[in-house]
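Collaboration report, partner site 2.

Our partner group contributed sequences for two proteins of shared interest, and the home lab folded both. The records are reproduced in the order in which they were received, starting with the first partner submission.
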Amino acid sequence: MKAFLMHRDQDFFLPREPLPNEAALTQDLELTTLFDAMAGGDGFLFEVARTAVLSSLTDPEAIRYRQQVLADCLEQPSVVIDLYNLAVEAIGAQKRIWRSFLSSPDSVLNWSVQLLELFVSALRRLRGLADEHAGSFRSEGFNRFFAMLASELDDQYLATVEGHLKELKFRRGVLISAALGKGNKGIRYVLRRAPEQKGWMQRLSVANRSGLSFQIADRDENGFRALSELRGRGINLVANAAAQSADHILSFFSMLRAELGFYVGCLNLRERLAAKQEPTCFPVPDAPGEPTLSARDFYDVCLSLSVEARVVGNDLDADNRRLVMITGANQGGKSTFLRSVGLAYLMMQCGMFVPAESFRAGVSAGVFTHYKREEDATMTSGKLDEELRRMGDIAGKIRPGCILLCNESFASTNEREGSEIARQIVRALTEAGIKVLYVTHLFDLAHGLYREQVHAALFLRAERQADGRRTFRLVEGAPLATSYGEDVYRRIFGSALDAVPTAGSDRRP
C-alpha cells in the first residue's frame, strides 16, 4: 500500500542523505526558525519539515501535484489532522504489546496476532474516514489515496483478515501434518486448517471417533518440551508470515505519518502567518532553465516568525536577468531581501505555499549561499582565504540552472581587490547559466558591473528617505557611492557626530 500524498509514483523517505551545502543553507537562511514553526514543538514533525524542505523537487509537475494536495489540506484541516493522529496511534500500538526476547515461533505469532488485531481496527477507522470525507477532496493525491483504501480494504477483505486472526489463536489446538525422513525424523511440517464444527452433534461424533493418540504425563518436562518444539515447527512459517504482515502494515502507517506530517507542518506554519494576516500564495513553478523570477509583496518568513509586527514586503521583476545586484543604505533590508528569495525558492520547490501575494520562478537545480562569516577564532587562516575556500567548494558543486546568493562576499579585503575577485566570479557563474543575487557595499564592484551589464542585469537599491529613515523596500536604481553609514552613527551616538571631523565618501558600513 502507498499513500500517494508526497509523490505520484514513489515513497517519501525518512531519513535522507544530507545535502553537501545543507549546513550553510540552514545557517544563512535561518531555516531552523522555519522548521520550528512547522514542527510546533514536535521533534518528528521537525525532521519531516527539514527533510521535505531540503529535498527540492525539480519537476514543475511534481511540485504542482504536491501543491494540489496541500490545497486540499488547507480546506480540510480537521480531517487531515484526524488521519495523522490515527497513523500516530497505530504506530504507538506496538509499544503496548509485550514482545518476548526469545522470539520462539509461539511468541512471534502471539505478538504478531495481537498487533495485527490493533492494526485491522485502525484500518477500519481509516476506511471509515475515507468513506466519509473522500468527496470533499479534489487533488489527484488524495483521490488516489482514498481509492486505494476503498479497493484494498473493503469490508470482505477486513472480515477475512479478522477470521484468520481468530483462527491463529488456535483455541481448538494445532493440526499439523508431517512426513518421516531419514532416521524417522519429521520433515515437511505443514500447518493444517482445523475442520469446521458447526453443531454439538458433529462435535460429539468427532469426540467419539476412534484414533491413535497419546497423553503426556503432568511432570514429563521433556515430553512437553518435545511437544512445544513440534508445535513450533508446525507454526513457524505462519508465525513468520504474520510477523511480515504486521511489519508491512506498520511500514504503511509509518509512511502515512511521515507524508501527512509534512502537511500538518504546513498547517502549523499557515496558522502562525494567518494570525498576523501575512499573505501566502501558491507559486507558479516554470520549467528548469526558464529565466523567470518575479514576485509581489514577498517577505522573509523567518523574520515574520521572529517578530510581533508584520514585516515589509517587496516586489521583484527579474525575468531574463542572470544577475541581481543589491546595494544601498546600511540596515535597509538588503540581507533580509536576499534571504527571502532563498526561502521562497526552497518553499516553492518542496510544494509549499510561499510568503508573498504572488511568486513565479523557473525551477532551480539547487540553491547555494555564500555569506560573510565571523573571523576564524583559531587564526589558522585569514577571512579572505576562508571566503575563497568556501567559494571553491561551491564552484565544485554548483551547476547550470542553480542559484547563488552572495551576502557581502569578499568584503574582508580592500575594495579594489575584493571587487576584482567578485567581478571575475560573477562573470564566470552568469556565463555558465547560474543566476546570482549579490548584496554588496563594494561600489567599485557594483558600479563596474552596472556600466557593463546595465541592460542584462537588475540593480536594486535599499530605499532611504531624505531624513535618513529606512523603508526596508528595494527599488530599481544605479549603485551609489555611499551606504549612508552616518545614519547608523547618528542613531547610536546622536549629535556627537557633529564634533567628529569627517572626510571622503562613505563606501563601507
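Second partner submission, folded after the first:
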Amino acid sequence: MIKNAKDFGFEIIAKDKKSKARAGKITTAHGIIETPSFVPVGTKASVRSLSPQDLKNLQVQIIFGNTYHLHLQPGEDTVKDFGGLAKFMNWDGPTITDSGGFQVFSLGKKTVKMIEDFEDDESEESLVKITEDGVEFRSHIDGSKHMFTPEISVEIQRKLGADLILAFDECAPHPSTYEYTKEAMDRTHNWAIRSLAASKLKQHHPWQQALYGIVQGGIYKDLREESAKFISKLNFDGMAIGGVSVGESKKEMVDVLNWTVPLLPEDKPRHLLGIGEVDDIFAAVENGIDTFDCVIPTRFGRYGIIFSGIPEGNIKTKFRIDIKKSIFAKDKGPLSRNCNCYVCKNFTRGYINHLFKAQELSAYRLASYHNVYFLINLVSKIREAIIDGNFQKMKQEWFV
C-alpha cells in the first residue's frame, strides 16, 4: 500500500488482451490501492480474530466496514469522535463502507421481538417497512426502531469517515419476481440520485470521500442493463455491482457481470459486492472488476475451512479443505503447499486439526490468517500476471 496520496483518482495500468481483466490503482487520502484488490470485511470495525497489525503484515490494502452494524454499535457519532473508522480501529490505510441497505433487508427480519409490536403487527415481515422515502427497521440487537434513507445513510458514512462510500440501495432477495426486482431497482435509482445530492451537503473530514453508485436488477438481463446505463449516467466517482452472492448460481453471477460491466464507464473503478472464492475472483477479474469484498476468508477460518492452492476434492470444493476432518490429524504438511504465510511456515495440518478439536481460540485466528493471506496473495499474483501479459496462462494453471 502506497502512502501519502491526496485526492481520489483512478488509473488503469495494464489490460489483458483476451478478456476485460485490468490492473490499475485507486488513489485515496489514506493510500493507493493497487488493483485488482481483495477487500477483507471488518463488519464492526474489526476483521474477526485478526489485529490491524496482522492485516498490515498480510499486505491488506483496504478494509470494508459495515454501516448498519456501526450505526447500531457503537454509533457513527462515537466513531467520528475518534477521528473516523480507520483511527478508531488503529488501521493505517484506506477504508470503504457499504450503505447498510443489504443488512437492513437481510438482518431486519431476524430481529427478536423484544419490545412493542412494529406497526401493531407481530409478523416478521413487519420488522422491515420499505417505502419510497427509505426503510424503517428494528435493530437485531435490542429491537429498537431505526430509519435509513439515502440522506441518513450518506450522513452516517460521512461520520464514519471512510475513503470510499456507497449509495443507499435496495438489494432484492433471491429469488424475487421480475416485478418486485424492478420495483427495488427503480427505488435504488431514485435513492442513487438522492445519495448523490446528500453527498454534496456536508463534509465531516478533511479528506475526500468518493461515492460509488450501485447497479441492481437481480438475475434479469434487461433490468441489469437498464440499471447499469442509469447509474453510469450519474456523476458517481465509482461503480459497484450489488445483488450477487445472495443465493443465485455461479453461472447467474457471471451472466450478471457479462451484462453489466460492458455498460459501465471504463475510466471509473468497479467494485463487486460480496464475492471471495477462488473461481468467483477469477470470474470477477476476467470481467473487469477492480475490487471485491467478502467475509468468506474469516468465516471459513472459524469453521475450519482452509483455502488450498492444490486441487483437493470435487470441483465445488477444489480450492479448499476441511481441516477438522480426521484424515488431517497426523498430517505433517502445511495448510497449503507452496504457501509462504506465517501459519504454513510454522504449523502443520495436524496441529491446526488438534486446535479445532480442542476448541482452542487460536485455531480461528491461525485459520483466518492463512485464508486472508491466501486471497491477498492470489489477487496480487493475478495483478502481476495482467501486467506481464500472462493472465490467461495463470488462469489455465489454476483451472486444469
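Feedback sent to the partner group on the second submission included the following. Residues 78 and 342 are 35 Å apart (CA to CA). Residues 361-388 form the longest helix (28 residues).
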